[in-house]
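User: Hey, my collaborator sent me this sequence without any context and asked if I could get a structure. I don't really work with proteins. Can you help?
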Amino acid sequence: MMLTCPLCASTDTGHFHRDGRRDYHRCGHCALVFVPPAQRLGLVNERKVYDQHENTPHDPGYRRFLSRLYEPLRMRLSPSAQGLDFGSGPGPTLSVMFEEAGHPMAIYDPFYAPDVSVLEQSYDFITASEVAEHLFAPGRELARLADLLSVGGWLGLMTKRVTTPEAFMRWHYILDPTHVVFFSEATFRWLADELEMHVEFPAADVVLFHKHKRRG
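Assistant: No problem. I've predicted the 3D structure and written it out in structure-token form, which is a compact way to encode the shape of the chain:
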């Protein structure tokens, strides 16, 4: 069955893997791997999974985990650059780390910090740690984040990447029922071209997009 890719809207998609719980399709245009919409959790059950998360800024292990995105992005920011943590979760931490470094931060999360007014402002940088894999409409959401950036701004994502079909079959990342889209390096390179941004891969699971000009 041909499905529409939720990132690039191509219908050049085909079956990629089945694990007994869900099916996974791959886009022949942008290489995104995705779960069919009918097999996603509903919003109520999705929220129940997130409510089980116990991450806090007081957990040094969680801070070390986030430092893979925090450190390379912080090195590229000017003093007092203003940021948005998109998908901040029930225990915002990355925003706290940047605030401690002198960067004013806004947060947004559709469940825990749903103030949409912060999505009407512009920012010098935007972070989305362990968020991209949850997006039902990643093409629309990531383009919106790119549009919120000032020229010269940075979009920093942290999400694990698809490598090979064989590795995908054994991948723990697909066991989380809230993970519905999976990016490869090729997908991110396609996205960078689409958003007219430069892309870098400074650390494991980390991708940085640099907005060097206005789109279009």
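In plain terms: Residues 60-74 form the longest helix (15 residues). You can pass these tokens on to your collaborator as they are.
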